[in-house]
Design a protein that fits this description.
The structure holds 2 protein chains of 2 kinds. Chain A is α+β, with helices and mostly antiparallel strands. Chain A contains 12 helices and 7 strands. In chain B, β3 and β4 form a beta hairpin. Classes of the chains: A alpha+beta, B alpha+beta.
């Protein structure tokens, strides 16, 4: 659960970034933080202002859809979600949100189609199972998944997201690691003092959206991993369905050992995120 | 004085050297296709020649590259030189060499040594450009300074 102090901290950081750069896409994260804090009016105002500058910013349309859901204006929420899909294609988070909107609009057959698809790709997703129960489709995790869960529990060690971030951060030449939600909000991050996790978080989200949009245009499917190299640094982004894991490193980082470490940690990861 | 046939043959040879570079890439296991595009998104060479959507990849390359560079440049530093995108099935790489982009589409399961071959291909392209279009030919020379109130200044 994200507490109020943490939200206040995020709001302060996002506002600072936005004050420094009025064109920053951080406005979406700021609006979402206000929404989560319950200040829907302010969230709407910030998001609409930002969308005037960035009308094709998919994450901002998703935040706007969530704001409309909070106001129980589900028709407007659906319109915003359609804009997000048009900008950067579908993602699991968008599908889940769309299913929820259909349920609220009492369009249960449409919701069922989406939920069946989501269920088939990840039968263990509790959020999808809950939504399925709302449309009268009670399902439980299949035996295989249940077995895997038991196996995972029986393992000597599993890593939380926080552990993974810390372990990756201490790798040589890694300057920072951050986890960003689908809507651009920072979940957690560790960075060298000179770097802001909010800024790298916003950057990784916008780079991911851009690349995803390009992948959609040439029918490549959903981007799972993006690597950007510059003269002095590397930005490595992993799409883990519900969030993006971003590693920011110097250009001389050992990619081989970093890759092995990432694969090892993610294979032992417990990636459940606390409910918002 | 070169006749037109010689000029055409010379031009074909240039294209072939770009072609050799992309063919070298598609020899590698798992590579589906490779395209060299100029910075305006036009196809310079592609392999295999029948590569479907070569023009689409060529057009998309500079768009993705410049937008990524703009985003990265705001925060880290400009000079993006390599973008790699992996989906469940595919691995798309866009890499730069002065004046051109190399776009490589491979199977996701292609091994990481493909990066070495991409780097070699970039070197081949860069060397070819360096030989054929040396800096003194390509660089923009400053306009000669014209003195005010001279005949040249008033007529040019």
């Amino acid at each position: 659960m994200i507490d109020t102090i943490e939200l206040d901290d995020r709001i302060a950081k996002c506002e600072k970034i936005l004050a420094g750069d009025g064109n920053s896409q951080i406005f979406a994260a700021l609006a979402d933080a206000y929404r989560k804090k319950g200040n829907i009016e302010k969230a709407r105002e910030i998001c609409l202002q930002g969308l005037e500058i960035h009308p094709n910013y998919s994450s901002a349309h998703v935040v706007m859809a969530k704001i409309y859901i909070s106001e129980e204006n589900y028709t407007a929420a659906k319109v915003e979600l359609d804009k997000a899909i048009e900008s950067s294609g579908r993602s699991r988070a968008i599908d889940i949100l769309e299913a929820e909107i259909f349920i609220r609009l009492e369009k249960l057959p449409e919701a069922k189609v989406i939920l069946e698809r989501l269920y088939s790709s990840d039968p263990g997703d509790e959020l999808v199972l809950n939504l399925m129960s709302m449309v009268g489709e009670e399902k439980s995790p299949p035996a295989r998944i249940a077995g895997n869960l038991a196996e995972r529990a029986a393992q000597k060690r599993s890593y939380s997201l926080s552990d993974i971030i810390s372990l990756l951060k201490i790798m040589p030449r890694v300057m920072g690691v951050v986890v960003v939600t689908e809507d651009g909000l920072i979940l957690e991050g560790r960075f060298d003092a000179s770097i802001s996790k909010e800024e790298i978080g916003a950057l990784s989200k916008s780079v991911y959206d851009l690349s995803s949009s390009a992948a959609n245009k040439i029918n490549l499917g959903v981007a799972k991993e993006i690597l950007v190299e510059t003269q002095t640094s590397k930005l490595w982004i992993f799409n883990k369905d519900r969030f993006l894991l971003t590693i920011f490193a110097r250009d001389d980082v050992s990619m081989g050992s970093l890759k092995l470490k990432i694969e090892d940690l993610l294979s032992k990861a417990d990636l459940s995120i606390g409910a918002e | 004085m070169q006749n037109s046939k010689e000029i055409i043959l010379k031009g074909l040879n240039e294209v072939c050297r770009f072609q050799t570079s992309v063919d070298y890439l598609t020899d590698y296991s798992g590579v589906i296709g490779a395209v060299i595009a100029d910075l305006e998104g036009l196809v310079v060479a592609c392999s295999p020649p029948s590569l479907v959507d070569a023009e689409l990849y060529a057009a998309l390359g500079p768009e993705v590259f410049s937008a990524t560079d703009r985003n990265i440049g705001k925060l880290i530093n400009p000079g993006c030189k390599y973008v790699s995108l992996k989906t469940d099935e595919r691995w798309l790489t866009i890499a730069t060499t002065p004046g051109f982009l190399l776009i490589v589409l491979a199977d996701r399961k292609a091994d990481d040594l493909l990066n070495v071959r991409i780097q070699r291909t970039l070197d081949m392209i860069a060397n070819h450009i360096k030989e054929k279009y040396p800096a003194e030919v390509c660089s923009v020379r400053p306009e000669p300074i014209k003195k005010e109130n001279t005949m040249e200044a008033s007529h040019v």
